[in-house]
Structures are given as C-alpha cells and as structure tokens.
Give the backbone structure.
Amino acid sequence: MVDDKMVTHFVCKGGCGGVSPDADLCQAPTCSKFNAPFDPCGCTDGLHGAPPKTEEPEEAAL
Ligand SMILES: [Zn+2]
Ligand SMILES: [Zn+2]
C-alpha cells in the first residue's frame, strides 16, 4: 500500500534535479544552485511543484 500522507522532501531547483529526504546542499558542481540549500517540497507525484498535467497535448513540431 502507498502512504497517503504528505511526504516532505527537498529538491534542488537549479537544474540538476537533486532530491534528498533531508535538508541538504546541492552537490552538483555544474548546477546553478551548487552549494545552495535544497527547497522543501511536499509533492507525492515526483513532480516537485510542477503544475499537474493529466493530459499532454501533442505538439506538432517540424
Ligand atoms: Zn542542484
Ligand atoms: Zn517533490
């Protein structure tokens, strides 16, 4: 079974995609937020605050 409670974790929003269960600093030297503290996140879908999308429109690219 899956816990429905809010899971608080920490994510880096500098572009490296780092995720930690505890408050931590970014460990990626190439990240724009290297050595900056992760931001707390309470998402349960792994999107980390991204707007929920139930439908992805197909974009016709060249
Ligand atoms: Zn980072
Ligand atoms: Zn999250």
Observations:
- The chain has one domain: 1-46.
